[in-house]
Design goal:
Length: 550
């Protein structure tokens, strides 16, 4: 068989279900090989949308999908989404075409060094130079992408190599359990917890793996230790559990910091400091004892110097701690501050639940209505902007992987393509993307993809006519902001032109009924609401007063 056929057969053997992308001349052989494949090709309207779809698929399933582009501009268009997947720990395989090896050494049409360009934003980047190496390259690519911590890999296929005959066969995948920590190391961590007065847990991206979340919940049910999650750790514990302390990670001080400052031992669980740097909660590196539990050793940082590193499979590490507490019982911990933090946060969540006035809708009201409209297993996808901060603070989950927030690379433009992928993974669940108007319009062309696939998704757009997060941050730092305003389309005409159901909601009291109608509609729906971003500065001022009072 020719090389492109072998590449597809190897991807099939690995269980790859989807290729998202935009074809070009240099990957035509690969596209024709896909025609006879069990792998479904999803034609997208932009390569960045393809990468975001593959990223969302990877975050929801733990397995990679493929995003595809041709050489040159196809490869550069994919780059942002691939970088986002890599820093947000989503397994992803990027496949790009390339010009023939006979012209790569010289200035030639659309030729650029794609492999070198992708090295900073992938775990591994490799061109195919020998047809018979394809099975090894694919097996390694999938293994590297899935291996903790998951991320993106690149495979480049030159057009002349794609046509050559190959004599090898796919390699049968073999998957093994991850390494586990030594008993002595776990004993050291356990002794710190046994002698602690008020321990607390920071649950990061790694804690939402289902086995890890299950063991974490068992630990907290037994001990009562409170859990605050990073933006990407939402759902590691149930929001309704008494030990849920909700989210940490805002730039300003928040109530949850009180629980951290009252703690004498902090367990970081699957914690990525790219989300929330330790300088924000452990300046100097010795404010409290830190137990680092993760798949990898701790990153070196002057403010993050763990007393114990428990390195290995996260679920197994937690299981080992659970067994020790089961054997010895639980010490008399003091969780009064944690209980107070939870009570104060719950009060804030409910504060605007009954808003029904005219004019722009408060973010708190919007998030309350969204939470009421979605069931426990439904999926919310957030974009990047001021809306992300409100989702991070006010929206919480019952289960892992039910709120996808980009918070490592933080690229805009993800909710619409991500929602399409979420529908493919979970067609039986309600899928809601929340985007700012600036965020949504960055990949608006994927509205056509959603229509073509009859994707059962809803997008809620918060309209403020500008880049609200940037103005918020500029206002905080400089007491003024530059001109960040822009115009928007007629939203209802936009929805109709793409065959979407559309609604524009101007009253807070009408938001929940509009959301429920959109979520009940079979097919894509757009709901747009003017947002009252005056609340941004009010939140900053309120959190600033918390800092003064403490």
């Amino acid at each position: 068989m020719k090389t492109s056929d072998l590449l597809v057969r190897c991807l099939e053997r690995e269980g790859i279900e989807y290729v998202f992308g935009v074809p070009g001349e240099e990957n035509a052989d690969f596209m024709l090989s896909l025609e006879d494949s069990s792998i479904q090709f999803i034609l997208t309207r932009h390569e960045q949308g393809a990468a975001f779809m593959a990223e969302a698929y990877g975050r929801l399933t733990g397995n990679p999908a493929v995003c595809l582009g041709t050489l040159g501009p196809g490869a550069t268009n994919l780059l942002t989404g691939v970088a986002d997947a890599n820093m947000d720990r989503a397994p992803l395989i990027c496949i790009t075409g390339q010009g023939a090896t006979s012209r790569q050494h010289k200035e030639s049409h659309q030729i650029m060094n794609v492999v070198d360009m992708y090295e900073p934003v992938t775990k591994w980047s490799q061109t195919i130079t020998d047809p018979d190496a394809v099975p090894e390259i694919v097996r390694k690519a999938v293994r590297v992408a899935r291996r903790e911590k998951p991320g993106a890999v690149l495979i480049e296929l030159p057009e002349n190599l794609a046509k050559r005959d190959a004599a090898t066969d796919p390699i049968e995948p073999r998957r093994f359990r991850r390494p586990v920590p030594d008993d002595k190391i776990v004993d050291r961590a356990y002794e710190l917890l046994r002698t602690a007065r008020s321990p607390v847990i920071i649950a990061g991206n790694g804690a939402i793996r289902r086995r890890a979340s299950h063991q974490l919940r068992q630990l907290c049910e037994r001990t009562g230790i409170g859990v605050m999650s990073t933006f990407m750790g939402k759902g590691a514990v149930d929001m309704d559990a008494p030990y849920s302390l909700f989210t940490i990670g805002l730039g300003q001080r928040d109530y949850v910091v009180d629980a951290l400052e009252a703690a004498d031992v902090v367990i970081t669980l699957g914690y990525d400091m790219v989300e929330y740097p330790p300088s924000r909660w452990n300046a100097g590196g010795d404010r409290c004892a830190v137990i680092h539990i993760d798949f990898e050793p701790a990153e070196i940082d002057r403010d993050y110097h763990p007393d114990v590193e428990v390195v290995g499979d996260l679920a197994h590490c937690l299981w080992m701690l659970n067994k020790r507490f089961e054997r010895d019982g639980v010490p008399e911990y003091d969780f009064a501050t944690q209980a107070d933090v939870r009570a104060r946060m719950l009060a804030e969540f409910r504060e605007h639940a009954d808003d029904d006035g005219e004019g722009p809708i408060r973010p708190q009201k919007a998030i309350w209505d969204v939470r009421q409209a979605l069931s426990a297993g439904d999926i919310l996808l957030s974009g990047v902007g001021a809306h992300k901060m409100w989702i991070a603070r006010y929206y919480h989950c019952h289960e892992p992987n039910c709120c996808l927030i980009p918070n490592g690379f933080c690229s805009m433009g993800q909710p619409l393509p991500g929602a399409i992928a979420a529908h493919l993974v979970h067609p039986d669940r309600k899928i809601l993307g929340i985007a700012g108007d600036g965020d949504f319009l960055m990949n608006v062309q994927e509205m056509e993809t959603a229509t073509r696939l009859n994707a059962d998704i809803t997008l809620l757009v918060w309209e403020d006519g500008g880049y609200g997060l940037i103005s918020w941050k500029q206002q905080d730092e400089f007491n003024r902001h530059t001109n960040l305003s822009f115009g928007n389309p007629d939203w209802l005409q936009l929805a109709a032109s793409f065959g979407w159901q559309g609604a524009y909601v101007q009253r807070a009291a009408d938001l929940k009924p509009a959301l429920e109608a959109a979520l009940a509609h079979r097919g894509p729906s757009l709901v747009v609401m003017p947002v009252d971003y005056r609340e941004n500065q009010k939140l900053t001022e309120r959190l600033g007063r918390i800092k003064v009072n403490n």
